[in-house]
Write a structure and sequence with these properties.
Order of helices and strands: HHHEEEEEHHEEHEEEEHEHHEHEHEH
Mean pLDDT: 89
Organism: Sinorhizobium saheli
Pfam families: Tad
Helix content: 25-40%
Shape: elongated
Largest sheet: 6 strands, mixed
Low-confidence stretches: none
Distance between the termini: 45 Å
CATH superfamily of the largest domain: von Willebrand factor, type A domain
Keywords: Membrane, Transmembrane, Transmembrane helix
CATH class of the largest domain: Alpha Beta
Radius of gyration: 30 Å
Protein name: VWFA domain-containing protein
Strand order of the largest sheet: 12-6-5-13-14-15
Length: about 475
């Protein structure tokens, strides 16, 4: 007999009968209330476990769904998963519900929890029920931004070619998947100390700092690099000059954070923003005479389902320059943000944030933030900072603010650290979760990219409720 029951018994044994009657009248409802709380707590725990079981069942059914599949077949899959789960023994699932547009599958699952104390009030069970919904496969669109570090360390440390092979295999994983064809678009965002918008997008620029919107160096590169070999990017319009020292690409822009520091003394609302150039035009890199004009990567390839073009862009990447992680991350956002719909070549993308589309950024780097505060290369971001380290901290703040804003908008971020010298702390922090952070070496990078591709493909089926 419990301590509380013994105390109750002693009170009933009191010689004063009136006291015993009063205690009995008051104590019984109190015991029922305490007992009901215990029973409802048990019911709550059962409901939590039932929700987990229902979620697993609806995901399993959604992953096996085929067009016009009979509801009876869907119901059998759900029932088998529920019966295999010890927490949902005795649970009953209602008829599966497939939305009219065949984008979502929902189920209601009910069970009952036997009571203990509440049986004193002739309440033998507490009903519990849950609802779970999942997106159906083959319906959801996927937009992926591949942000790749092409700084000079990549080729100097023999990491560049393995990375190209890995990214190419990643694209193949989606182009060869019949279920993903027509549903997947991928952008390629090479970055080093800057990003290039390419010569097809010079109308995004503004004259600045006494220089024209489109620098003469971009339109007449032969006059600047007399001994270089002139070629064109895969877009057919962006020039590159290949000399014995470097690849001189055109079309790079100053990061907006740098421009804000120059104009206002600090990073403002644009530095970590996805505002399109229709709202705020970009400043050409040449407007900063100290930014190091040679350190410009190949142009961004906006979202496309032309995987042949993407593979050509990957195979033509070059490696040079320092590492502005913030520039790469923000540019990746540009290719995914609905604010840029109709700004890029494809008028239909990026689409709006919605459950019908999965937006993903996969960002890879082998280094640390490397803003320049030297005599020959000076980033405007470093104005008013005491040291290059302080300047890098400012750039990291911009990067993390951009990552946070993307995650708030539902963009899933995978990050990949590609060397022992990489800034693991900040790379991991940018990722959606610790499970979205990966490390790689030249011998493992292709396997890592394949793992990420598999995770993204699996995410095409996911819970919505």
């Amino acid at each position: 007999m419990t301590r509380s029951l013994k105390a109750f018994s002693r009170l009933l044994d009191e010689r004063d009968g009136a006291v015993a009657v009063i205690v009995a009248i008051v104590a019984l409802p109190m015991l029922l209330a305490v007992g009901a709380a215990i029973d409802f707590a048990r019911a709550y725990n059962v409901r939590t476990n039932l929700q987990s079981a229902a979620d697993s069942a609806v995901l399993a059914a959604a992953s096996k769904y085929e067009k016009n599949m009979p509801k009876s077949k869907i119901a059998r899959t759900i029932a088998s998963y529920l019966s295999a789960n010890v927490e949902s023994k005795g649970a009953v699932a209602g008829e599966p519900e497939v939305s009219d547009d065949r984008t979502e599958l929902c189920i209601d699952v009910a069970n009952s929890v036997p009571t203990t104390f509440m049986q004193l009030a002739r309440i033998e069970t507490v009903p519990v029920s849950v609802r779970s919904c999942a997106l159906l496969p083959g319906i959801r669109q996927v937009e992926i931004a591949l942000v790749v570090d092409v700084s000079s360390s990549m080729i100097e440390e023999d990491r560049f070619e393995p990375m190209l092979n890995a990214v190419s295999a990643f694209i193949d994983a989606f182009s060869s998947d019949e279920a993903m064809k027509g549903k997947t678009k991928i952008s390629l965002v090479p970055f080093s100390s800057r990003v290039s918008i390419g010569m097809d997008n010079t109308d995004w620029l503004k004259a600045y700092n006494g220089t024209p919107a489109v620098p003469e160096r971009w339109t007449n590169p032969k006059a600047y690099y007399e001994n270089g070999k002139l070629a064109r990017w895969v877009d057919g319009s962006t020039p590159v000059v290949d000399t014995s020292k470097n690849y001189y690409w055109m079309g790079c822009i100053e990061p907006r954070a740098d421009v804000e520091v120059k104009e206002k003394g600090s990073v403002g609302s644009l530095g970590a923003s996805d505002v399109s150039p229709k709202t705020s035009a970009f400043v050409p890199q040449d407007a900063n005479s100290q930014s190091g004009k040679s350190y410009c990567p190949p142009p961004i390839t906006s979202l496309t389902d032309d995987f042949t073009y993407l593979q050509k862009a990957v195979s033509n990447l070059t490696s040079q320059g320092s590492t502005r992680l913030d520039a790469g991350v923000v540019a990746g956002w540009y290719t995914l943000s609905p604010r840029w719909k109709g700004v890029w070549e494809d008028e239909s993308t990026p689409v709006d944030y919605d459950d019908s589309v999965q937006k993903v950024m996969v960002s890879m780097t082998d280094g640390q933030m490397n803003a320049k505060k030297t005599t020959d290369k000076f980033d405007w971001l470093c104005l008013h900072t005491s040291s290059e380290a302080a300047c890098n901290d400012r750039a990291l703040d911009v990067m993390q603010d951009s990552c946070s804003a993307m995650k708030k908008n539902g963009i899933e971020i995978f990050t990949l650290s590609y060397s022992n010298e990489a800034d693991v702390k900040n790379i991991r922090k940018c990722a959606t979760s610790t499970n979205h952070f990966y490390t790689a070496s030249p011998s493992t990078i292709e396997a890592v990219y394949q793992t990420i591709a598999s995770v993204i493909g699996a995410d095409a089926v996911r819970l919505t409720q």
